[in-house]
Amino acid sequence: MVFNSDTTKSGVVTSPGYPNPYSARTRCRYDFQGRGKERIQIIFQVFDVYRPPEGTKECESTDSLVAYVQIDGKMEKIDSFCGESAPRPLMSNGPRLLLEFRGLTASRHARGFKATYSFLENFGITTGKQELSYPCAFVYNSNETMNGTFTSPNYPGYYPRDTECHYFFNGQPKERVHLHFHYFDVEGVLPCDSVSASDYVDFSNYLSRDRKYSRHCGQLTEFDVESDRSFFRVTFKSNDRLDGTGFNASYQFVSEEDNYTVKTPLSSSAAAAIDYSTTPQAGYYCCFSSLMTLVLLSLLPGQFQPMTNEIAY
Known about the structure:
Largest sheet: 5 strands, mixed
Protein name: CUB domain-containing protein
Pfam family, one: CUB
Keywords: Disulfide bond
Distance between the termini: 49 Å
Order of helices and strands: EEEEEEEEEEEEEEEEEEEH
InterPro entries: CUB_dom (IPR000859), Non-NMDA_GluR_Accessory (IPR053207), Sperma_CUB_dom_sf (IPR035914)
CATH superfamily of the largest domain: Spermadhesin, CUB domain
Domain CUB: 1-120, 136-254
């Protein structure tokens, strides 16, 4: 079965015979073909594919639905689904997606699956104003709304592979951008670079890279990030290897006079962030730090030079 975006942009797809149980030795392919920047999103409403009780947790040797996307000109398998738990929403990395249903055995109770499909150009991101000059970019302006939410592509489903999305926050003069990440699951390990084949989220006060902020990846607890300027950029980047469920975050434009305590993970794989300002030892850390600064300055007269924030343009 072929689903072409020239014919329809959305619809329903089901296993053979649904809602009746599918027959043994059933095989069906669903080929979704979009155009240009379109991505295919599959949202499962019913999923009931037979798996024997004593069977393995893997879906390779039982009834299953297998998903393929196009990577470097070839169709590559990204996942397979079986059992009775509905998979998370699925999104392709480009304008092509192939689903293959394999019903090896017959069961009076296994109804198969029912899902909706959509050809999208917004990557499943429903907030902000899409900037069409980029493959994937969304703009948030404080003169339109002072707060809101933003997510990774296809959230809460697995984000698509080989995808880069930018989120641009534009405040008024003397405004800053405060971000709070409620959920964060981006596949990768420190230092979140290409050597470790990591996906990542990057932050910057500029359009270019900002060395003040480290890349974030892994599974993190809630954390906060705040800009130094009225402009702030967040970039999400995935490669063609593994998947995560991405992130869910909120933003707020605040006055630079507002006193926020910004909590960030000690590292991108930290289990929790520590906010010393809320601990009983806060006064000790503050006073000790100030005392050590005075001692160092007195020992290095004429040699102390203020540090500058090194920015890569």
